[in-house]
Design brief:
By secondary structure, the protein is of the alpha/beta class. It folds into two domains: 216 residues, Collagenase (Catalytic Domain); 140 residues. It contains twelve helices and 14 strands. Helix 1 links the parallel strand 1 and strand 2. The longest helix is centred in the middle third of the chain and has 25 residues. It is globular.
Length: 366
């Protein structure tokens, strides 16, 4: 059976690629494939709100599943009726669920996993992909979810736990279990043990990787992050090979150790541009504005609505860090989305202490 994974255009393509690579790492009966990203022109045929996609507060379940239906119609030459379509999006749904499935269509909310766990979000999103594939095979009816006896309203550690309290998702990720009742239903519905075994193998892989990352992310990093006179960034003396834009972004967040409110990134563009100019020797206002802002007015051009590149470059900084410190340690040095415990304000920040950071005065004093 085939599962086609796509995303709405504002979601980081790098993150989608990471999720698919993780799922593909476990061979078996379920074949995960990348499907082309939904484009704005297609979405505008559904609703003109997509013209300002980054400002959509929420979509209903019906609207979310309509995205999958349209994607199927556009890709009918590549998709069979029995194939499952998964759409990963950073647009919230009006029930604020992690994900939902209707027949062969799935949507997954791919943002804000940092607020639940400091482990890389690719593991949680991949887990949601596996869970919803299994729920699709079980014939779960999302519009009558609380009346379905197969759904556990209390958290037990089974894949079919409802997890009304969001942090309970960690329980079933770390349990990687399908209970006897759910397994029996899968048999009654004709789901082969080959498919169920692949689901279990995927869950176990995610559990192991998640558990290892969680263990290391709870410890305190001991290596110093250094920015030298040329703006070269190293961790424990090992150079991180950032692109210029990621380098400027990372130095900026090293300087802003208390974090930056997630909805005020656009206000920070001049500071990031100063760092970028110091690195490059010339400025690039357009690139920096695209990094931080949802709209852009460049010189004499009319105002343009854009897809901000912040999430893409946040993912790229983490990818570069992984190559030096490894998968399990990368979160300790990466730009994370956090919630301030006293104000409940969401902020992006690097979870380091001031004594773990050394920045050359050339950049510190900008």
């Amino acid at each position: 059976m085939k599962v086609h994974i796509t995303s709405t255009p504002e979601f980081s393509e790098e993150k989608v690629n990471e999720v698919i690579a993780l799922l593909k790492s476990v061979p078996g009966e379920i074949v995960f494939e990348k499907s082309p990203t939904l484009d704005i022109s297609t979405l505008l045929r559904i609703d003109d709100r997509f013209e300002n996609i980054n400002e959509i507060e929420a979509l209903s379940f019906v609207e979310m599943f309509e995205l999958a239906r349209i994607h199927r119609a556009n890709r009918k030459a590549d998709l069979n009726d029995d194939d499952i379509v998964i759409i990963i999006t950073s647009i919230p749904n009006d029930q604020y669920w992690f994900s939902a499935v209707s027949e062969k269509n799935v949507f997954i909310y791919g943002d804000e996993w940092d607020l639940i766990s400091n482990v890389d979000s690719k593991f949680s999103v991949a887990h949601q992909c596996v869970e919803n594939v299994f729920e699709s095979l079980l014939g779960i009816d999302v519009f009558n979810i609380k009346d379905d006896p197969i759904i556990h309203m209390e958290t037990t550690g089974c894949l079919m736990d409802f997890c009304e309290q969001k942090k309970d998702i960690l329980v079933k990720i770390l349990s990687a279990t399908i209970c006897d009742k759910c397994y029996q239903r899968s048999i009654e519905l004709g789901i082969t043990d080959i498919i169920t075994a692949h689901v279990v193998d995927l869950l176990e892989m995610i559990r192991k990787e998640f558990a290892i990352s969680k263990r290391f992310s709870s410890s305190n990093p001991t290596e110093i992050v250094n920015v030298d006179k040329e703006g070269i960034i190293s961790i424990g003396g090992r150079k991180i090979n950032f692109g210029d834009i990621q380098q400027a972004l990372y130095i900026y967040f090293l300087k802003k150790i208390d974090g930056v409110q997630n909805n005020k990134l656009c206000e920070q563009k001049s500071e990031i541009e100063k760092i970028y100019t110091e690195i490059r020797g010339n400025t690039d206002e357009y690139t920096i504005t695209k990094l931080c802002c949802k709209k852009i007015k460049y010189r004499n051009h009319p105002e343009e609505k854009i897809k901000p590149t912040f999430e893409t470059n946040r993912t790229r900084t983490k990818t570069a860090i992984k190559k030096v410190v490894g998968e399990t340690m990368a979160n300790q040095y990466s730009i994370q989305l956090t919630t301030d415990e006293s104000t409940h304000i969401k902020k992006f920040k690097i979870p380091l202490k001031p004594n773990q950071i050394e920045i050359h005065p050339r950049f510190l004093n900008l």
